[in-house]
């Protein structure tokens, strides 16, 4: 666990404020230099950043290396996709026991995406958290693979092809998500609120138990806490965050498909968290930005960009263990 | 389904099983002894296949090409160990997963630059190209029988190596108590490199033998890598015996699910639904198996560190 | 070359260009977004598409319809959301006029909503999903290759005419696979003794081949593009089924990109496609020779389709006089399809999909010992897809 020294604390606060200011100003900056498409790119960064932050909550703080986190992102995306498909098709989602129609109302769909992410996380976490270490990595992967193949089996909803969305979610008449700047700020607002919530959470007593369980589970149990229940709660909250990011991703890409749940996507989320800095909550956002910008920049240079990205990953793991955020936010005291 | 067909599907399951065992043995040994997760194991499988496919026309014989390719792959494996992986042994598993994920990207792209994006053709040697009627009425590809034979022979060889030789003793000692090895004055570094080379050679052997039945192409390592991880997690990490049992179990379950599930589902629901769900469920079976095993025995069937 | 002779050469070249095209020296340029798959297992197809398009541009002197052409290339990694992001970037940053290169149906489907909003045309060099041919047909989409069902329907017809009684059908478990087998069954009227869907990307078909043998069909139809097809055909031969039960498939399972990897197991396999290297017209000869000379390999059906995309675009821009901003005019010019396709007769249906001939091809060895396809007959003339009636455009 990284606890910052006083000086580090100041530096981190400054870094957060500067970063936030830059993000708020980004659409204007992008317009000023005539690169409006950066708004779209950064929207994607914010969304995947949200997913990465939710992963950091369990990975960085709880030591739970979920190799299936993309599944929750995919579930959130499918909630948006399936309900929108029914609007397009004009058929109800179900007729029994109650009639449920498709909808594109963001105030309904987005919370529902988070809720479904949470529910799946509850079921998967309840079983997976019985294991630790590699077994945990593999069992979360197994569940994600099951959901991946399940999505491929959903022939009604396009199977492997997925669903193309002809409409974004609606948030009332005053907020038009088709406007890329508006959508960007909506994503930014959601990310800021989620990071703030997570930060509150990690600093609460609940957070202490989760972090304590990572270092010494037995001691936590001796102190009268149930590490399992606390870890499961963290897992569920993380699933909700990932589900919400999936709902946003569906809107940004105007597309939902099984590929969102593939194990490579889960791997990329882990890369973002580690690249940015584990257990820092801000780091994963930076990690998402670094990963996507690197991908973008290298892909422009050469079609063989992966031959560069691979060693960069290796290098970061070997030499820059605290991630980019550790480097930005200054020295940290390690007490693991 | 009649008995003959069931026997044939059993052979198919066995063949997939021994293939997975060749991959899993190396992976689980590396894990058991160095406490290292190596995702790049699949890359060695790919390299084995590419080397064999390239060498076969040069030396004029598939078997000879394999004989040359395996030590080469072992050398490449050992070089990777010395250059990149050695620094990772003391790290967290997460670090290892990431670093070796980076290696996968690197190797895939490297192979694509060297050999190009098009798959390479490799056919079985002529004397193994036909079919054998192992039971009257069931012609079975001779090459697949050869894979089964080689796989079982390697399993026997590993058993002897681990139980009867000094190296094997060190491997066993390392798997159950890593610190003790160093205390005994064993050159741990050399042992690690050796074990890694052995694992690389086994992976390359699997890749070389896969070449004539599968396409030799970039990324071929990843699909089998995931299956291999399923195998060693079911079997119990670090246990070669567990890897064998896990490999055969996964091979059988996967094959039978693919053969039986669509037919079974067709009796239960309309065909168009059954076909889609059948294929999806068949892909899911081994993951369901793994989740069930882990929920029941979180450390796998034969945990190495008791 | 000294400066005087260079100037002369330029003058001559300009003069020749005057003769070649009625509209010359147009201002401005046309920007083409080439979004295709350049990395990963599917990259072979994308590379063929990119190379053939580049070859066409070279043959046209770097212009399309007399307008200077710029190609902006990007790798979609076969991921729909990456393709979407690339398309958005090309529309916003590079202001492309046309997007092409898309190989996969799901990527085409994912791109259409935003391309339609931006009023940018997608000229598909391969993907031809049934959705975009019917209910969701789109004024900004042109399927230059085929509707996905076409090759399958042709083979269903051929199997029917061959008197196959008991057919066994196999495809990957994705919508294009389902469409494929539906396409076969639309024209094949015999008994279907097995209809099997396998996992996308599956490599080993031992279990399925055992079931197949047990079902004792007298014909097998497979739709396995790329690596799946390579594996299946090899294993089909090794299981001793080749020569006992005839194998049929669409052209893209036996295209020149995968034939070298399948090897002799593919020899003699009948397949159907709308193009073949031996179609006898001058533009096709030029294409096949040019492709081999430039890249040292035989062109695949994907390469042929991409070459046609460039020819189509060239004719359309010429027809509009280079006025790319007038979308309706450009659409009408594209719809007119006033170009000499390397596959011969070609015109667009009302749903922007081709009406074209489908040929029966056989895999043979050419005089250099390389595997390739030759035409053995014509299955359909002026074939249209069955979805056009659902398209209200």
Automatic annotation (TrEMBL), chain A:
It is a multi-pass membrane protein. The chain crosses the membrane at residues 12-30, 36-58, 70-88, 108-127, 134-152, 182-198, 228-249, 269-294, 306-328. Keywords: Cell membrane, Membrane, Transmembrane, Transmembrane helix. It holds the Pfam family BPD_transp_2. InterPro entries: ABC_transp_permease, LivM-like. It is found in: Cell membrane. GO terms for molecular function: branched-chain amino acid transmembrane transporter activity. The keyword Membrane applies. One of its GO terms (cellular component) is plasma membrane. It comes from the Bacteria. This is ABC transporter permease. The lineage of its organism: Bacteria, Pseudomonadati, Pseudomonadota, Alphaproteobacteria, Rhodospirillales.
UniProtKB/TrEMBL annotation, chain B:
The keyword Transmembrane applies. It is a multi-pass membrane protein. It comes from the Bacteria. GO terms for biological process: amino acid transport. It is found in: Cell membrane. One of its GO terms (cellular component) is plasma membrane. InterPro entries: ABC_transp_permease, BCAA_transport_permease. GO terms for molecular function: transmembrane transporter activity. The chain crosses the membrane at residues 12-32, 39-56, 62-85, 97-115, 142-162, 191-218, 224-253, 274-296. Belongs to the binding-protein-dependent transport system permease family. LivHM subfamily. This is ABC transporter permease. It comes from Skermanella stibiiresistens SB22.
TrEMBL record, chain C:
One of its GO terms (biological process) is amino acid transport. The keyword Translocase does not apply. Keywords: Amino-acid transport, Signal, Transport. It holds the Pfam family Peripla_BP_6. Gene3D superfamilies: 3.40.50.2300. Residues 1-25 form the signal peptide. Residues 29-366 form the Leucine-binding protein domain. PANTHER family: LEUCINE-SPECIFIC-BINDING PROTEIN, PERIPLASMIC BINDING PROTEIN OF ABC TRANSPORTER FOR NATURAL AMINO ACIDS. Belongs to the leucine-binding protein family. This is ABC transporter substrate-binding protein.
């Amino acid at each position: 666990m990284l606890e910052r020294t006083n000086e580090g604390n100041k530096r981190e606060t400054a870094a957060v404020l500067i970063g936030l200011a830059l993000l708020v100003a980004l659409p204007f900056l992008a317009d000023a230099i005539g690169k409006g498409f950066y708004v779209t790119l950064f929207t994607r960064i914010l969304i995947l950043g949200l997913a990465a932050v939710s992963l950091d909550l369990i990975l960085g703080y709880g030591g739970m290396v979920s190799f299936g986190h993309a599944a929750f992102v995919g579930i959130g995306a499918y909630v948006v996709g399936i309900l929108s498909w029914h609007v397009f098709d004009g058929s109800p989602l179900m007729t029994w026991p109650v009639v449920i129609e498709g909808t594109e109302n963001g105030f309904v769909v987005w919370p529902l995406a988070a809720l479904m992410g949470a529910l799946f996380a509850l079921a998967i976490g309840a079983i997976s958290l019985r294991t630790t270490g590699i077994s945990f990595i593999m069992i979360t992967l197994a569940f994600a693979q099951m959901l991946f193949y399940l999505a491929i089996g959903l022939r009604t909803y396009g199977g492997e092809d997925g669903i193309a969305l002809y409409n974004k979610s609606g948030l009332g008449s005053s907020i038009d998500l088709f406007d890329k700047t508006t959508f960007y700020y909506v994503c930014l607002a959601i990310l800021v609120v989620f990071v703030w919530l997570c930060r509150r959470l990690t600093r609460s007593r609940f957070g202490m138990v989760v972090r304590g369980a990572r270092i010494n589970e037995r001691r936590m149990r001796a102190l009268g806490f149930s590490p399992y229940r606390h870890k499961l709660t963290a897992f569920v909250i993380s699933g909700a965050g990932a589900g919400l990011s999936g709902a946003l991703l569906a809107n940004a890409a105007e597309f939902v498909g099984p590929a969102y749940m593939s194990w490579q996507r889960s791997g990329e989320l882990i890369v973002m968290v580690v690249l940015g800095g584990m257990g820092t909550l801000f780091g994963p956002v930076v990690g998402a930005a670094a990963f996507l910008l690197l991908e973008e920049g290298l892909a422009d240079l050469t079609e063989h960009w992966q031959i560069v990205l691979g060693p960069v990953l290796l290098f970061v793991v070997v030499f820059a263990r605290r991630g980019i955020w550790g480097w930005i936010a200054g020295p940290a005291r390690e007490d693991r | 389904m009649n008995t003959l067909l069931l026997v044939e599907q059993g052979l198919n399951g066995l063949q997939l099983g021994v293939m997975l065992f060749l991959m899993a043995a190396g992976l689980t040994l590396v894990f058991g002894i160095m406490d290292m997760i190596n995702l790049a194991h699949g890359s060695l499988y790919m390299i084995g296949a590419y080397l064999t496919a390239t060498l076969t026309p040069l030396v004029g014989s598939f078997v000879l090409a394999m004989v040359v390719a395996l030590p080469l792959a072992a050398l490449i494996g050992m070089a990777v160990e010395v250059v990149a992986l050695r620094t990772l042994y003391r790290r967290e598993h997460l670090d290892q997963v990431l670093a070796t994920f980076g290696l996968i990207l690197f190797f895939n792209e490297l192979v694509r630059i060297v050999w190009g994006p098009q798959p390479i053709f490799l056919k079985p040697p002529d004397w193994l190209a036909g079919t054998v009627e192992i039971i009257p009425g069931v012609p079975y590809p001779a090459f697949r029988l050869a894979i089964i034979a080689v796989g079982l022979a390697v399993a026997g060889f590993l058993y002897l190596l681990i139980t009867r030789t000094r190296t094997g003793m060190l491997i066993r000692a390392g798997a159950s108590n890593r610190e003790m090895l160093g205390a005994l004055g064993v050159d741990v570094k050399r042992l690690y490199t050796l074990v890694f080379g052995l694992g690389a050679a086994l992976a390359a052997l699997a890749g070389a033998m896969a070449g004539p039945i599968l396409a030799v192409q970039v990324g071929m390592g990843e699909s089998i890598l995931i299956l291999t991880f399923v195998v060693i997690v079911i079997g119990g990490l670090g246990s070669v015996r567990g890897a064998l049992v896990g490999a055969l179990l996964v091979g059988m379950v996967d094959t039978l699910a693919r053969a039986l599930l669509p037919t079974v589902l067709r009796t239960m629901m309309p065909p168009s639904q059954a076909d889609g769900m059948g294929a999806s469920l068949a892909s899911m079976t081994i993951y369901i198996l793994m989740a069930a095993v882990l929920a029941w025995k979180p450390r796998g069937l034969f945990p190495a560190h008791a | 070359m000294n400066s005087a002779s260079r100037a002369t050469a330029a003058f001559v070249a300009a003069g020749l260009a005057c003769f070649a095209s009625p509209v010359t020296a147009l201002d401005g340029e046309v920007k083409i977004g080439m979004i295709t798959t350049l990395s990963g297992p599917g990259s072979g197809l994308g590379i063929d598409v990119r190379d053939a398009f580049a070859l066409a541009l070279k043959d046209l002197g770097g212009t399309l319809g007399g307008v200077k052409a710029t190609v902006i290339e990007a790798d979609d990694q076969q991921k729909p959301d990456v393709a979407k992001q690339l398309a958005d970037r090309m529309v916003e940053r590079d202001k492309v006029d046309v997007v092409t290169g898309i190989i996969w149906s799901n990527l085409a489907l994912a791109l259409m909503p935003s391309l339609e909003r931006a009023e940018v045309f997608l000229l598909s060099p391969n993907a031809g999903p049934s959705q975009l041919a019917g209910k969701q047909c789109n004024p900004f989409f042109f399927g230059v290759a085929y509707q996905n069902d076409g090759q399958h329907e042709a083979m269903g017809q051929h199997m029917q005419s061959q008197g196959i009684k008991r057919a066994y059908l196999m495809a990957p478990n994705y919508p294009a696979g389902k469409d494929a087998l539906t396409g076969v069954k639309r024209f094949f009227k015999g008994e279907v003794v097995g209809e099997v869907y396998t996992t996308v990307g599956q490599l080993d078909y031992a279990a399925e081949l055992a079931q197949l043998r047990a079902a004792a069909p007298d014909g097998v139809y497979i739709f396995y593009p790329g690596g799946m097809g390579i594996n299946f055909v090899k294993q089909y031969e090794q299981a001793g089924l080749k020569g006992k039960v005839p194998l049929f498939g669409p052209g893209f399972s036996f295209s020149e990109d995968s034939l070298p990897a399948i090897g002799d197991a593919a020899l003699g396999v009948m397949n159907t496609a709308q193009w073949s290297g031996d179609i006898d017209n001058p533009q096709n000869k030029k294409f096949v020779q040019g492709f081999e000379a430039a890249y040292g390999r035989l062109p695949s059906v994907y390469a042929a389709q991409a070459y046609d995309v460039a020819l189509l675009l060239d004719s359309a821009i010429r027809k509009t006089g280079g006025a790319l901003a007038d979308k309706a005019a450009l659409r009408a010019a594209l719809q007119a399809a006033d170009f000499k396709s390397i596959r011969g007769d070609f015109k667009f249906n009302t749903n922007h999909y081709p009406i074209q001939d489908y040929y029966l091809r056989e895999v043979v060895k050419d005089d250099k010992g390389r595997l390739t396809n030759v035409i053995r007959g014509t299955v359909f003339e002026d074939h249209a897809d069955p979805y056009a009636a659902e398209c209200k455009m």
